[in-house]
């Protein structure tokens, strides 16, 4: 007996993928019983179709391609408001599997199953979904998120009694997938996402096969499982199929073009009419980033505002400004954030931020959908600096609202959550006093400010 699992992950609203997927699935071997699953971050609000439909167009396309199961990633889970996520899968014709996401009362939402069994050729295969443990962000949005390994520990004993094979849809990342395989050897296959890892033939940890199909629909993954007459697994194998050379399905391509036209119409709502252009330069002082820094200071009720010019992808000309304009200019799923630092820590952050190499830093991930960091813009803050012969910048004095700050004085900063991740600004990352504003995105802050001009 032989079954096949086809899997995608981290498509991130690259809608050009779907017509190629349609062709691949149409031409795939129909003689082998197959299951089609998605491992999350299928949607991404950087794309205007997803923005206009709150991801419901993504769900419609998963229906069109006849997916059987899907789990959610952080782009589904924490870039949509509570009600928007609740409605995301209302029309889904597939099961949404997330074992570690709950309502605040501890019950599973109506639109979620923790796991599901599928009978294939007389075999009983259990599919389980888990998503990355961004507990604080889910809590701010009105959800309760549990540690995924703890949940697996609770549910696996009963599952393994019934299932002939156990498959986990894991939007945790490769490191956690490896730990999962070590801790739970009863899991036969882990289909992974989140860290965009590419495992051409899978990776073995004990008897567990780990899989990953990259990002943006570059590949579709395939897992083949062979069983003996006693329904015990004889063989497991993993492979990847590149979608790049595959010809797109014309009918689905046309359907997506129609959806795009409808999305653009939705986003053409007027935000404001401005009587002067707002220009952005990534590497020089410019008014548009300064305006956004001021908006963040006001939104977060902070002492200063701080944001990098690279989050603004274009200038705005005088005249009508629409939601479509702001989405094109600021497409990132980035939230405003208030962080409290000492004067000494703030000076250290600014010292890092004003260096030429930081301004030219190319960034990928952590919510950023632009190209380069760009010059840091501030509101309510003044600097005295010296430029050395090698081009490096020395911050001599920092003024907050015209006053020289003291080393141990606490200063609040209205900024963006991107700076709290990774290692760009260790002082911000380590700060204990942080407040994240959700579900508002950076472009919502911008819209409110421009409407008041």
Report what the structure shows.
There is one protein chain. The chain has 453 residues and is α/β, with parallel strands linked by helices. The protein has 2 domains: 2-262, Purple Acid Phosphatase, chain A, domain 2 (4-Layer Sandwich); 269-451, Alpha-Beta Complex (5'-nucleotidase,  domain 2), CATH 3.90.780. Helix content is 30%, strand content 28%. A 6-stranded mixed sheet has the order 4-3-2-1-13-14, with no helix packed on it. The longest helix is centred in the middle third of the chain and has 17 residues, at 250-266. The mean pLDDT is 96.
Number of helices: 15
How are strands sequenced across the largest beta sheet?
A: 4-3-2-1-13-14
In helices, the fraction of residues equals 25-40%
The CATH class of the largest domain: Alpha Beta
Strand residue percentage:
25-35%
Mass-distribution shape: globular
Subunit organisation of the chains = single chain
Structural class: alpha/beta
Looking at CATH, which topology of the largest domain would you report?
A: Purple Acid Phosphatase, chain A, domain 2
Q: What characterizes the major β-sheet?
A: 6 strands, mixed
How far apart are the first and last residues' alpha carbons, in Å?
A: 68 Å
CATH architecture of the largest domain: 4-Layer Sandwich
């Amino acid at each position: 007996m032989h079954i096949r699992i086809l899997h995608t992950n981290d498509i991130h609203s690259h809608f050009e993928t779907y017509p190629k997927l349609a062709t691949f699935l149409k031409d795939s071997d129909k003689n082998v019983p197959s299951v089609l699953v998605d491992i999350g971050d299928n949607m991404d609000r950087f794309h205007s179709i997803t923005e206009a439909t709150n991801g419901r167009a993504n769900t419609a396309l998963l229906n069109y391609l006849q997916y059987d199961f899907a789990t959610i990633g952080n782009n589904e889970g924490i870039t949509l408001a509570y009600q928007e996520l609740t409605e995301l899968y209302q029309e889904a014709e597939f099961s949404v599997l997330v074992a570690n996401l709950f309502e605040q009362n501890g019950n599973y939402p109506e639109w979620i199953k923790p796991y599901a069994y599928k009978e294939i050729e007389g075999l009983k295969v259990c599919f389980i979904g888990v998503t990355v443990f961004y507990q604080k962000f889910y809590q701010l949005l009105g959800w309760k998120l549990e540690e995924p390994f703890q949940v697996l520990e609770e549910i696996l004993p009963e599952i393994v009694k019934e299932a002939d094979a156990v498959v986990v849809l894991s939007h945790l990342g490769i490191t956690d997938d490896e730990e999962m395989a070590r801790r739970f050897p009863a899991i036969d296959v882990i289909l992974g996402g989140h860290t965009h890892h590419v495992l051409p033939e899978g990776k073995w940890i004990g008897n567990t096969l780990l899989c990953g199909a990259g990002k943006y629909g570059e590949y579709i993954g395939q897992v083949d499982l062979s069983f003996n007459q006693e329904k015990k697994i004889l063989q497991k194998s993993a492979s990847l199929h590149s979608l790049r050379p595959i010809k797109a399905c014309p009918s689905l391509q046309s359907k997506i073009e129609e959806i795009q036209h409808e999305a653009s119409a939705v986003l053409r709502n007027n935000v404001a009419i401005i009587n002067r252009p707002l220009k952005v330069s990534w590497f020089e002082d410019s008014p548009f980033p300064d305006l956004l820094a001021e908006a963040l200071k006001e939104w977060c009720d902070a002492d200063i505002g701080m944001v990098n010019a690279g989050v603004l992808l274009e200038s705005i000309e005088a005249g009508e400004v629409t939601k479509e304009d702001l989405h094109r200019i600021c497409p990132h799923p980035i939230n405003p954030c208030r962080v409290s630092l000492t004067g000494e820590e703030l000076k250290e952050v600014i010292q890092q931020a004003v260096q030429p190499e930081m301004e030219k830093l190319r960034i990928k991930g952590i919510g950023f959908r632009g190209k380069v960091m760009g010059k840091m813009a501030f509101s309510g803050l003044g600097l005295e600096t010296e430029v050395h012969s090698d081009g490096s910048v020395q911050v001599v004095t920092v003024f907050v609202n015209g006053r020289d700050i003291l080393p141990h004085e606490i200063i609040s900063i209205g900024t963006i959550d991107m700076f709290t991740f990774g290692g760009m600004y260790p002082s911000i990352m380590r700060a204990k006093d942080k407040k994240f504003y959700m579900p508002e995105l950076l472009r919502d802050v911008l819209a409110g400010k421009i409407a008041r001009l």
